Amino acid sequence: MTTSQLVSSPKSGENVWLWLVKIITGPLLVILLGIHLVVNHFIGTRGLLTYADVVAYFKNPIIPVMEITLLATVVTHSLIGLRGIILDLKPSRTVLTVINWILAIIGIVSVSYGIWLALVIASKGA
Amino acid sequence: METQRNRPSPSKFWSWFFPVGRQTGGWAYVLNRVTALGLTFYLYLHLIILSKLAQGPSAYDDFLAFIHNPVYTFGELLVVAAAFLHGFNGIRIVLTTFGVSVTRQKQLFYGLMFIAIIIILIFGIRMFTA
Amino acid sequence: MSETKWNIILKIYRQKENEAPHYSEYKMEVDPDEYVLDAVERVWAFMDRSLCFRHACHHSTCGACGMRVNGVEKLTCITYIRDVTQDGATLKVEPLRNFPVISDLAVDMGSLYCRMDSVGARPVLPVTEAEIENPSNKWNPEDAKYIRLSDCIECGLCISACPSAATSSGYLGPAVLAGAQANGLKHDPALLELVDSEDGVWRCHSAFECTAVCPSFVDPARRIMNLRTQIVSERLSRLFRRKS
Known about the structure:
CATH topology of chain B: 3 helical TM bundles of succinate and fumarate reductases
Largest sheet of chain C: 5 strands, mixed
Number of helices of chain B: 5
Mean pLDDT of chain B: 93
CATH class of chain B: Mainly Alpha
Number of strands of chain C: 9
Helix content of chain B: over 70%
Mean pLDDT of chain C: 93
Structural class of chain C: alpha+beta
Strand order of the largest sheet of chain C: 2-1-5-3-4
CATH topology of the largest domain in chain C: Fumarate Reductase Iron-sulfur Protein, Chain B, domain 2
Radius of gyration of chain B: 19 Å
Order of helices and strands of chain C: EEHEEHEEEHEEHHHHHH
Largest sheet of chain B: none
Low-confidence stretches of chain C: none
CATH class of the largest domain in chain C: Mainly Alpha
Distance between the termini of chain B: 60 Å
Low-confidence stretches of chain B: none
Number of domains of chain B: 1
Oligomer: heterotrimer
Number of strands of chain B: 0
Strand content of chain B: under 5%
Strand content of chain C: 15-25%
Shape of chain C: globular
CATH superfamily of chain B: Fumarate reductase/succinate dehydrogenase, transmembrane subunit
Shape of chain B: globular
């Protein structure tokens, strides 16, 4: 057994920046998701916001901005987190490249879809 | 070779969820990982279901009526519980990472979990009485 | 030593090369104030000469006798039988996890030693750099000529207890990252690429199992967290240095 077999490959799949994004989005999510859960469970008349409640809630322009921020943050945190769990399994470079693309596409598609949905709802109340 | 079975291997991923013989931090790790995977699954399910909002008032409100029963409410409570447990456990990770309370992470964990459980109870009471 | 005698069953993990693992049970009389290693040694001395295990100093300095006692990593030379079992009970002794088994309770820790070397972990260090809680007197700079053994005895308990080390063969592991931290990024900038990687500090998910089982005063989890802070500040300062 030589040392070179035991230490990291030259091209590493994880670094300080990805981790910093995860650790900064975390506390931000505690706040944003906290608000999201309180609004949905404590303002709605039957426990959850009805369609009319949602449209009324989105009339305030801050709300779509806040909800889109929440979505972008939670998607980023979840995908970096999921990638971290996958890295615990020591995937090969090829597998990791494929996973990176899949996760990036999931991220872009879900955030774009969320922005579209928030704009649709905001336009209903206008 | 038989003696190789004690080596690290991706096939041992089950040990992430197997806290027997582990100590406080190990249980926190299991909790963090289980809620992480559960919340990730729910996040994308939630986004798909929200497309009902784009289909108009009746589609969305019919769906709300459909899930207004104790079984789904309990499922929702599990999601809320997972969110608060993961979030408060995350606070432990952030604080200890930056050196705060790093030698007292057990006490920090118990304290944060106590707060999380109280919040979950408040949500539970509200969700089952609304 | 007390006059008390306990009858216990010592259930030991057995595995020779190309053999499936199994457990052997040994009924024996022990003094509860003996150490677990004493009982294992007695099995070898009087009951089964084929039992293989590692031991040397018997006073928690060499780090050879790490085993899993009832599922928890222990340095068996300082683990009282009284603390891990009771009269009439079974005491299970297994090899450390995450290292290949050589024979029975002896595992190949070569990977740990090579990695300790790769991060420049120092077996001895100047007393002025030692992290001793509440030192009775403060060190003067000239005291740096005096050296002491570093806290880490390279027993491997932390690697065995770590959930990340169970699935990733590449993960450097708690002891190694603690060694890198003690060395310091300021002192050895070449360490940065090694520890700021998928096999370095980011594989740690804050289970703190390493610190829970460490028989010395290394507190690997605290050192990993400190190493992260070192990496963040080093990367940020490099980023701004490049821009200015």
